[in-house]
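Record Fimbrial-type adhesion domain-containing protein, 349 aa.
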Amino acid sequence: MQIFKYIITCLLVGCLLHTLPASATTIQLIGRVLEDGKTVRYESTAYYNVNSLLCGNADYSFEFRIIDWHFYVSGGGVDQAAGQFFTLKRIGFNVTGRGSSQDHVAVGDNAGSYRFTSNFHKNANIKIYFDLLFNNDDYILNDTDITIPPSSLLRMTSSNCYMVPAMNSKFSSYNQSAYLLKSNLSLRLESSNSVKVNPDIKTCAIDGATDQTVQLDTVFKHELDRNTTVQAGNFAIRLNCSQATATHSYIVYSDGNNNANTSNLLTLDSRSTAKGVGIQVVDETTGAAIKFAPIPTAQFIKVSQVTSFSAVNSANRYITRNYTVNYVKNGTVTAGDLSAKMVYTLLYR
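=>
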């Protein structure tokens, strides 16, 4: 389930100044979760006068203002949940006084930033609102919900203010330098309340026993001396996804005797008496030996750090993945018994 890349880009010709003022005006916003369970609507707690807040109280003959906005994720101190794992999907304004209500819909947040222009009368008062959508393209949620606490830094803005003669004046029709009133004003958009988001993704169920014991074949010492790797057994992991709403499943394989193990050989139990032999698990789907990793404990996990198990869709409701267990010679072989333990963690988005 999880969040997004973090780059600042310029979307129009020319860029806003990237050096922010030493301080920024803080705007408090109230958040509420929308019906889909994964979108948070934030709206400023008060109305703000356009000319006072954004244009330095400039008093010129042109009564209308074009604001060149840049919403982005701050490079320092941004709340992790709000900044990194939620995508900016919708930005708008509730307008009172002179001017009509405006609504700006973004198709994407361009890796954390979004830039556009809006036109207001200088006496208009506005409330800022925007939607943050839980984004699971790059991250998986390893938890049941996400809390965005009070005073979280949701987004920053940097803006330029220009005067124009009419509400429908085009930003590109005027020399930007000649009509610039105030540049690079920074707003700090903070949450005023705690919001808990529960994406409510239904996952698959293990089809069969969650714990399995694989009885390994007996092999002779000379077989390992001659072949180095000898097949010892097999097993399968099966999922029933008939009730799932998740679209993809992922898996992390861990060493049950040594969680820190990142090799492709399991650590033998202390009661094992065989020497010079390791146990390897091969994923028959890829043909590669599994590389083990610690059991994931972070709330958000990068998709790139886990193994894809299977897509989940209407044509793929019952999923089976097969594995082969091998003995692998890794030293001077001494005959005896051996056993090991593998733990797997399934994740969904």
